[in-house]
Every structure is written in structure tokens, then in C-alpha cells.
Amino acid sequence: MSAFTLHRRSGRAIATFSGFEADLLRSLAGQLVELLRHEAAVPDADRDPLEALLDFSGPTTPPEDPVLQRLLPDAYSDDDEAAGEFRRFTEGSLREGKAAGAACIIDTLEEAGLPAELTDESLVIDVELDQQAGLIWMRSLTDLRLALATRLGIEDDDEDRWLALPDDDPQAQAFDIYQWLGYLQETLVGAMSR
Question: CA torsion sign, 33 to 34 to 35 to 40?
């Protein structure tokens, strides 16, 4: 994979992914969408839009899943009542926004030529992101990295522990994916800020 770079004429961020890389990224984004939309806090898409807009019956307690707790933290750490009220009004839309961002990654990859099922080992796709899509990808890559870091138990300044694992250790491989997502994010930020 090449890093994201800025295409001078179009102003778009461009990267080339192998089929494997694109499929891995789609899988990670799909898992995030499923996690965010799998609980009762998700708005019902079949409801009347005005009713949905005026519905403030969201959850008042943090989610049980540690990844969701990290992605949807309490707004007030020292006031459970205020945190619950804030969560009641905001969690549904926050979940939907994060899920929509991850879905944007999937859509972009598929529009660039990633088939529903990857069968061609030599497939290469080029992804181009305009400013708006680039911002969505940046936020979603952050969410993916937070989710993976939470599942793995990655903490600040513990990189040596992860790098000391043997290459065939599944956790070392997951850490490599975490670092790869960071590389994608870093190069995308660099391309979009030029």
C-alpha cells in the first residue's frame, strides 16, 4: 500500500490498496458498524422523522461493552445524573454518526472496485477522497484504532511489550493492524492538511 498523498490538481487524497488490505479495512469497518448498531440505542430507521427527532428516550447508562464505553464516554465523569441525561439525548445520534462514518469507508472501497467477495489475490484499487470524505475517514480510523486498542488492552508507552511478541502470535498480528491503521490515519492527515 502506498501512503495517502495529495493529488495536486484535484485536491484529493489518494492511496493504493492491495485487495487484501482493502478487504481487511472493509471487515474492520463492518465490525464497527455492527457493534454500534447492534444495541437498543440505535434509532429506528422506519420511524417518522419528526417523531424520531423529538424522541429523547435514549439510554441513560454507559454501554456494557468496553469498546462502546471508549467510543461513547460519559460527558460528565463526576456527575452520574448529568452524564445520564446527556447520554439520553445524544447517544443514539453519536452511534449513528460513527456507524455512518465506518459505512463510508466500506462504500468508498467498494466504489473503488473492491468486490463483495475477494477472489483475485492480485487486485489493486485506488481510493480517492475529497475533503469531506477525508474528514469522515480520519474520524472513522480513530474509532477503529480506539476499538482495537480497547480489545487488545493497548496502553500508552507499552509498544515495547507488543514488539517483543513473536511474529506468529495473534496479538502481535493484531497490533500490526493497529499500527497500520495509525499509518493510514497519519498519511491521510498529512495529505489533507497540505
Answer: positive
Cell 464505553 maps to which residue?
69
- 1-16: per-residue pLDDT in tens? 679 999 989 999 999 9
Residue 113, all three cell numbers: 472496485
63: its cell numbers: 454501554
CA distance 28 to 91: 22
Contact 192, 10 (CB under 8 A): no
* CA dist., res. 153 & res. 149, Å (int): 6
DSSP state of 118: -
Helices (H) and strands (E) counted in the chain, each on its own, are 7, 3
Backbone angles phi, psi at 124, to 5 degrees: -135, 135
Number of domains forming the structure of the chain: 1
pTM score, two decimals?
0.86
Query: Read out DSSP for 131-162?
Result: HHHHHHHHHHHHHHHHHHHHHHT--TT-HHHH
Q: Which domain holds residue 152?
A: 5-192
